[in-house]
Design goal:
- The structure holds two protein chains of two kinds.
- By secondary structure, chain A is mainly beta.
- Chain A has three helices and 13 strands.
- Chain A has one domain: Fumarylacetoacetase-like, C-terminal domain (Fumarylacetoacetate hydrolase, domain 2).
- In chain A, the strands form two sheets. In chain A, strands 1, 2, 3, 5, 6, 7, 10 and 11 form an eight-stranded mixed beta sheet that branches. Chain A has a five-stranded mixed beta sheet with strand order 4-13-12-8-9, with no helix packed on it.
- The longest helix of chain A is centred in the C-terminal third of the chain and has 8 residues.
- Chain A is globular and about 45 Å long.
- Chain B is mainly beta.
- Chain B folds into two domains: about 40 residues, FAH (SH3 type barrels), CATH 2.30.30.370; about 210 residues, Fumarylacetoacetase-like, C-terminal domain (Fumarylacetoacetate hydrolase, domain 2), CATH 3.90.850.
- Helix content of chain B is about 10%, strand content about 40%.
- Chain B is built from four helices and 19 strands.
- In chain B, strand 1 and strand 2 form a beta hairpin.
- Classes of the chains: A mainly beta, B mainly beta.
- Chains A and B meet through strand 2 of A and strand 7 of B.
Chain lengths: ~230, ~250
């Protein structure tokens, strides 16, 4: 597993291993749920950022094989910009939030597809090796606008999703402000901005490539679960 | 064997009980209120159970479950014994949850129930705070309820699994300002420890330091700034925490 040692030559020099994902940040994803957001079990649109934890067993890096469990026909390949924290971020103002970042990285967040966002089983998102991060953290200063980066997912080299890091209900700075209101993010922690609507599915044997312009190109092969 | 991790006089030390005091690994004997108590082990992935006592599930009007209700927490929420937890001014229902914390001692991947207890290194007490005002119906329980700074209290002791044995039937209770508020026994788990290790390790590899917070029994009540909350598990420890207001945090 290469991610755990993913190092870079500027402060804080490495990832801490703490990774949070942001669900339904895409305006299009929320809109696609239609009136269901107002019906049980949800009863209202989400107010606070909808977050989840990618625990340390999920962490993988560029080139690592990602196992598809026997119980899943395919995995959803969620491509996100990763915001890498550079200095302790507690109650940061939106106007200053981006200055807390050390840099950006490409994340491929693999999950077992699930219909309900009410109380999904943690096994959908906590599979071993299901959070690929890399190949490198690029310095924050090299990205003029993290909320307008073209993003693509290719499966076996064929374009499967073309989107952008824009169109989020909370752009990067707003997200950091709202998250750090109640939970401090520490140097090396990673917060995913969110996956654009329409994340493709990939099966064992296929290669998933995520590209974010100016940030990097991350590639992983999906394999069958080892016995 | 039980041991704590404490900060004292510029260093971080392992400590063991010494009468009513603490004995640091370097030989110094110190009053237990003269140190800063840290979480007693290096905390890895924090796995928490919702509704793992039949009575608490009923209290919150939930029916029978097919699969454990598991959620994950981040390391930033963890504090130790005798710490402070903030109650935001706008909250109307903030409650403790006294839980047995099971600490993994060796890697577990697809472990069968009968072998599961061999993967347990030991235990500590957890107080897993929640603020119900912030509960939303998206990826419940959402992190604003359950992953707040200072919302996961662990300690005071790490107690070796061998001291507890394989049958973990432990009375536990919470006292608020000395008054009994919550009471239960870990024999009433809906999903017991071997099952949880089998279930979790079927899809995620558990590593040493990963910790399973096994859920809380009925009897959760609102706590206010100034309240002293003590979560106690017989044979494991007595975990003290104080609720403080926004003002303490300069809010």
């Amino acid at each position: 597993m290469t991610m755990k040692t993913l190092a870079f030559d500027f402060s804080p020099y490495r990832l801490s291993g703490t990774v949070y994902g942001t669900l339904l940040n895409s305006s299009e994803s929320l809109a696609a749920l239609g009136d269901a957001v107002h019906q049980p079990p949800y009863k209202a649109a989400p107010k606070a950022p909808v977050l989840y934890v990618k625990p340390r067993n999920t962490l993988a890096g560029d080139g690592d094989a990602v196992e598809v469990p026997d119980t899943a026909a395919a995995l959803q390949a969620g491509a996100s910009l990763g915001l890498v924290i550079g200095r302790t971020a507690c109650r940061v103002a939106e106007s200053e939030a981006l200055s807390c970042l050390a840099g950006y990285v490409v994340v491929a967040d693999f999950s077992i597809p699930h219909e309900s966002f009410y109380r999904p089983a943690v096994r959908f998102k906590a599979l071993d090796g299901s959070c690929s991060i890399g190949p490198a953290v690029v310095p924050a200063a090299s990205i003029a606008d993290p909320d307008a980066l073209p993003l693509r997912v290719l499966i076996d080299g064929v374009l499967a999703q073309s989107a952008s890091t824009g169109g989020m209900r909370r752009a990067a700075a707003r997200l950091l402000a709202d998250v750090t209101e109640f939970m401090t993010l520490h140097p090396g922690d990673l917060l995913m901005l969110g996956v654009p609507h329409g994340a493709p599915l990939a099966k064992a044997g296929q290669t998933v490539t995520v590209e974010i312009d100016g940030v990097g190109r991350l590639e992983n092969v999906l394999t069958k679960e080892k016995a | 064997m039980r041991r704590a991790k404490v900060a004292y006089a510029g260093g971080i030390h392992e400590a063991t009980p010494h009468g009513d005091s603490l004995r640091l690994s370097d030989g110094r004997v110190i009053a237990e209120d003269a140190v800063v108590w840290l979480p007693p082990f290096e905390v890895g992935t924090i796995i928490a159970l919702g509704l793992n006592y039949a009575d608490h599930a009923k209290e919150l009007s939930f029916g029978a479950q097919e699969e454990p209700l598991v959620f994950l927490k981040g390391p930033g929420s963890v504090i130790g014994h005798r710490g402070q937890t903030r109650r935001p001014a706008d909250a109307t229902f903030m409650h403790y949850e006294c839980e047995l914390a099971v600490v993994i001692g060796k890697p577990a991947r697809k472990v069968a129930r009968r072998d599961a207890m061999a993967h347990v290194a030991g235990y500590t007490v957890a107080n897993d705070y929640a603020i119900r005002d912030y509960l939303e119906n998206w990826y419940r329980p959402n992190l604003r309820v359950k992953n707040r700074d200072g919302g996961t209290v662990l300690g005071p002791w790490f107690v070796d699994a061998a001291d507890v044995g394989d049958t973990v039937h432990l009375p536990l209770r919470t006292l608020v300002n000395g008054k009994l508020a919550q009471e239960g026994n870990t024999r009433d788990f809906v999903f017991d420890i071997p099952y949880l290790i089998e279930y979790l390790s079927s899809f995620m590899t558990l590593s040493p330091g990963d910790v399973i917070l096994t859920g809380t029994p009925e009897g959760v009540v609102d706590v206010q700034p100034g309240d002293e909350v003590i979560c106690e598990i017989d044979g494991i420890g007595r975990l003290v925490n104080t609720i403080v207001s926004d003002a303490v945090f300069g809010r």
